[in-house]
Amino acid sequence: MLKIENLTAEIDGKQILNGLTLDVAAGEVHAIMGPNGAGKSTLSYVLGGRPGYEVTGGSVTFNGEDLLDMEPHERAAAGLFLGFQYPVEIPGVSNVQFLREALNSQRKQRGEEPLSGGEFLKLAKEKAGLLKLDMGMLKRNVNVGFSGGEKKRAEMVQMGILDPSFAVLDETDSGLDIDALRVVGEGINSIMRSPDKAVLLITHYQRLLEVVKPDRVSILAKGRIVRTGGPELATRLENEGYDAVMAEPA
């Protein structure tokens, strides 16, 4: 579904990704782990098309199409979703207004009819229920006054409403307590666990992977994938640390 080959990228003239190669198949949850400064967030921003991140080499294909040739809104309409480590606040815009506009914009891009207000509210209520988020929260301004856990749950509701085929989730577990972590993890499973969907799950810790169980785990270090294995690799990283695991012969 997603194929990255020898990807290099820089920000402000500093190269961060150094020949990164990675495949994520449909139906797969692929976890990316790595030390601080490894390039994990840069990878997510490059895939999402964030301005300022310049691709200097390599290729990325998404369902056989050149992802790097698409504008950010085109990537979203094609089925790519980017979950931020720190979801932004948008004062003056309600979640309901924001999400309905986002969904119908994507539907228009795909040549589909927009949802009516009633149809949208029914969908929003269903997805909010999966994340145990009160509908009253969705009537408030986007993330304004939300706790860290509420922001992450609201973002997963957004993912459920937009219904992407591929989700890039950048440290979704950041700032979550134990209960919120389980709710968010189970929400990811409900929304994205499907033979025709896939998830690239970027995390520092194994705790989210105990709920959203990965099919494969890769270590990203110094802008490259240095090792890939099964779920047991995350357990080893948690117990032994990056230095010890990466010091072994591949």
Automatic annotation (TrEMBL):
The keyword Cell inner membrane does not apply. Keywords: ATP-binding, Nucleotide-binding. Residues 2-247 form the ABC transporter domain. It comes from the Bacteria. InterPro entries: ABC_transporter-like_ATP-bd (IPR003439), FeS-cluster_ATPase_SufC (IPR010230), P-loop_NTPase (IPR027417). Pfam families: ABC_tran. Belongs to the ABC transporter superfamily. Ycf16 family. This is Fe-S cluster assembly ATPase SufC. It comes from Qipengyuania aurantiaca. The lineage of its organism: Bacteria, Pseudomonadati, Pseudomonadota, Alphaproteobacteria, Sphingomonadales.
